[in-house]
Amino acid sequence: xxxxxxxxxxxxxxxxxxxxxxxxxxxxxxxxxxxxxDGGRIRYxxxxxxxxxxxxxxxxxxxxETDDGQLVVLTDEDxxxxxxxxEREIEVIEFVPGDQVDPILLAKTYYLEPDRTAAxxxxxxxxxxxxxxxxxxxxxxxxxxxxxxxLRVRDDVICLQTLLWPDEVREADFPILDQDVxxxxxxxxxxxxxxxxxxxxxxxxxxEDRYRAALEQVIEAKVSSGRTQAVPQAEEVGExxxxxxxxxxxxxxxxxxxxxxxxxxSAASSGKDPDDAPADEKPATKAPARKSRSKAAxxxxxxxQKPARKPASTRSRGKKADDEKPAEDKAADEKPARTGRxxxx
Length: 345
Hints:
- This is Non-homologous end joining protein Ku.
- By secondary structure, this protein is an alpha+beta fold.
- The protein is 36% helix and 20% strand.
- It has a domain at 5-24 and 82-167: Ku70, Chain: A, Domain 2 (Beta Barrel).
- The radius of gyration is 43 Å and the shape is extended.
C-alpha cells in the first residue's frame, strides 16, 4: 500500500505521528470505453464552451455561479489561502459511544500506521479506545477539504472513518409512511418466525459478486476462443491537431509541386504535356515572350516574371478567332502560321 497522507493525531498534549492508507478499494473488472468499429479508446477532452478548443490543465480554474447569474472564478491561489488548521493534523475533539454514530454518516475508511518513533503513544490511544468502548470524533483535511471523522479500532489497527456533514444527509419524505396501517398479530408472528429461520452471524466472505464472476467468464470465453484483437495505437498528433503522417504527406506534395513548377511551368499553364507537342512546335513557347518584350519596353519586368502566361493567352485568343472563321478561311491561314513559328525559332 502507498500512504496518501502523513501527519499526526493530536489529543491533549499527546501527538502520534501517523501515515494514512486507503483501507478499501474497488473490485470491479477494469473496463474502458472503446469504439465498436475499430477498438480505439474513447477519450474525453476538456473543451472551452466558448472557444470550442481544448484547454490545458494549467488554464483551468473553479467557478461559482451566484443566484443572479454572475460567475465567481476561484484560482488555485485563492484556494491555497484558505485556512486549514487540520491539513497535517488529526484533531481529536471528543470521545463518544460507538452506538451514537449513525451508520448513514459513515463514508470512506483509512488505516493509520504509526511512525517508527510513535509505537508507544499509538498503542496507548488504541487501548484507551478499546477499554472505554468509545470512538474519537476528529477533524482532518484530506485533498484540501476538511472532513469530520471518527477513530475506531479494528483488529488492533486504528482506523479513521470519514463522516458526512449533517447537511449532506437527506431526509426521507414519504407521505405514505404517515398512513395508519394495522398489522395483525398472526402476520407479525409469521414474519418473526421467518426472520429467526434466516438468522445467522454475519460473515461477508460467504457472499459472492455473481455479476463480476459471470463477466469474468464471458471475457475468458472470448480469450480462449481467440476472439481478441491487438490494441490499436493512436496516431501521433502533430502541430495544428493533424496527424503527423498527414503533415509529412503534405510536405512531400508541396515539394513535388515546386519541382513541377520549376521544370515545366509553361506546359502546366497550357494544360498540355510538352512531350506530346510536335518537334517543330516545342521551341515556339519562348518566341512570343521575346516579341512582347520588343513591342512593349515598359513591361519588361512583367514579361520576365511570367514568360509562360502570355503565349497561353495569345494562343487562346487565336483559337477563338479561328473558330469564328469559315472553314475555307481556316485552311488558308494554317500554313502561314506554321511558317511564321519556324521563322521565330
